[in-house]
Each structure stands twice: as structure tokens, then as C-alpha cells.
Amino acid sequence: MTSAFVRAFLVMVVVATPSALLPGIGADTKQMVALVALFAGTLTFIEYNATYPSLVEFRDAPPFNRIRFVMLLVTVFTLSAIERGRVAPTTITEFFDAIGTLIGISMDFPYSPVRLATLMMADDSSPHLVASVRTAAGMSYLISLISLGVFVSMMRAGRWPPRDAAFNVWVNLPTFDPTAGADVVRRLSRDARVNIALGFLLPFLTPAVVKIASDGFQPVTMGSPQTLIWTMTAWAFLPASLFMRGIAMGRVAEMIRETRRAKGSEKAQGHYAPI
User: Fold this and answer.
1) Which residues cross the membrane (predicted)?
2) How crowded is residue 165: how many other Cβ atoms within 10 Å of its Cβ?
């Protein structure tokens, strides 16, 4: 229960970070953020306090969710610091802004995710706002790539899943039904490929979908700092999460395949007398 409470508190901190760092936040906005943070914290506490989770995947396979949480926290904090620096600049806000600007300009080439992120804005957006979106996109994309690299490195090094602990597939994949459809390994491999493909395509598809949808509705302006922070965070966090999920499911499928191969080898050896 203590562990679940700590996790719930940390999730609430992430949700409340932009409101805590940005100046000039109204009372209504703070109340809405507090309500969302309370809901997210309650859901996290229920999931981690229950014996068997219902939504959270890889709950008992650290540090999968820890890497995703740190990626989300660092992205939200960094973008909030950059937006705060536009009103009350400090050394750390200028440092983050310089890194985001450098990465954003470096990745701002035709058909790149950063270029598409700037193109989904309204046509009459100011150059200053476009530059802010480019900086936020570059910083959030850099954080997501670093987090993805950390997870892949840990998996390659054999630290995920931990070899000294049992890995329960059905607890760590509560939304995966092993009794439906074809063979479990085949379905896990197929879902892994689908998640990796979606993770690769989502940064390119999201701006296109937003641009098409804005033809009948009000275009995306991102004039509000909170809108900019959460939009760019979701734009970078969701594809990286899908990438990690696909890689993890592929690893689980490989583990099941190795276990079946080992059991089959033991059964085959049982038919022969030792020499």
C-alpha cells in the first residue's frame, strides 16, 4: 500500500507540474488540474494496490514503467521550465531553451516529425509561436529518444526482464487475452510489430490528422502554455511508449518460445536412457 501511495503521489506531481511552474495560472485552471491529478493518482493507487492489475501493463517488470514515468516527468518539467523562462528567465530555463532550440532547428527539415509538428498549426500563427513549438518538439523528441535508448540498452544487457525473478505474463499483460485467437507467441509477435509500426508512424500521422480535422474546426493555435506543454508531451510520449511496448512484447514472445523449446528438449531427453 505504501508503494502504491508513493506512485500515486508522483503521478499527481507530474499532472500538477505545469500549473506549479507557470506564472499567472487562474483559480479555475488550478481546480481543474487538481481534479485531474486526483483522478490520475486514484487510478494509479488502485492499479498498484490490487493483487491483479486491470489496465497497467508490466507492473511487476521494473524498470519498464519507471522509465516511461521518468520520460513523462522530465518532458513535462523541461517544457514547463522553458515556458516559464519566457516570463521569468533563469539560467536553467535558458539552458533548456537553448538545447530545445538547437535540436528543433537540427531536425527541422522536410518531412521530419518536427517540421510536421509546426505545420499542424494555424496558417496565421506568429513566427514566435512557431519557434516555441519547434523548440518544444525538439526537446520532447530528444527526451523520448534517450528514454527509448536506455530501455533498449537495458534489455540488451539482460537487465529486463530481471533474470533473478519470475516473470508472470498474464499479470504483466492484463489486457492481453491468451485464450482468444491463434497461438500466444504468434499473437504477441504480431502485436509487437503493430506497436512498433504505430510508434514509428504516429509522429508523422498525428500532425496530418490534426491538420485535416482543423479544416472543419478551429485550427490548433497552442497559444496557451499548458496546451503547448501537454500537446507536445503527448506527441513525443505516446510513440515512444508504443515503441517500448512493442519491443517488450517481442521480448516476452521470445521468452515463451525459449521456454517451450527448453521443455520440448527435456521431454525428448526423457525418452532415452542415459549412457
Assistant:
1) 6-25, 32-52, 131-153, 196-214, 234-253
2) 10
Overall size of the chain counted in residues: 275
d(CA 192, CA 149): 17
Element (H, E) at 82: helix 64-85
- Whether 82 contacts 37, CB under 8 Å: no
Q: Count Cβ atoms within 10 A of the Cβ of residue 169 and give its class: 0-12 exposed, 13-18 middle, 19 or more buried.
A: middle
CB 78 within 8 A of CB 135: no
Burial class (CB in 10 A: 0-12, 13-18, 19+), 108: middle
Q: Say how far apart CA 148 and CA 244 lie, in whole Å.
A: 7
Question: How far is 173 from 180, CA to CA, in rounded Å?
Answer: 14
Tell me the DSSP string of 171-224.
HH-TT--TTSSS-HHHHHHHHHHHHHHHHHHHHHHHHHHHHHHTTTSPPB---S
Cα separation, 7 vs 65, in Å, equals 11
Q: What are the domain boundaries of the chain?
A: 1-50, 60-166+197-270
| CB atoms near residue 223 (< 10 Å) | 13
- pLDDT tens, per residue, the chain with 275 residues: 899 999 999 999 999 999 999 988 888 888 999 999 999 999 999 999 888 777 889 888 888 999 999 999 999 999 999 999 988 889 999 999 999 999 999 988 888 888 888 887 777 778 888 899 999 999 999 999 999 999 999 988 877 887 777 788 888 888 887 766 668 888 899 999 999 999 999 888 887 777 676 655 555 566 788 888 998 999 999 999 999 999 999 999 888 888 888 776 555 555 443 43
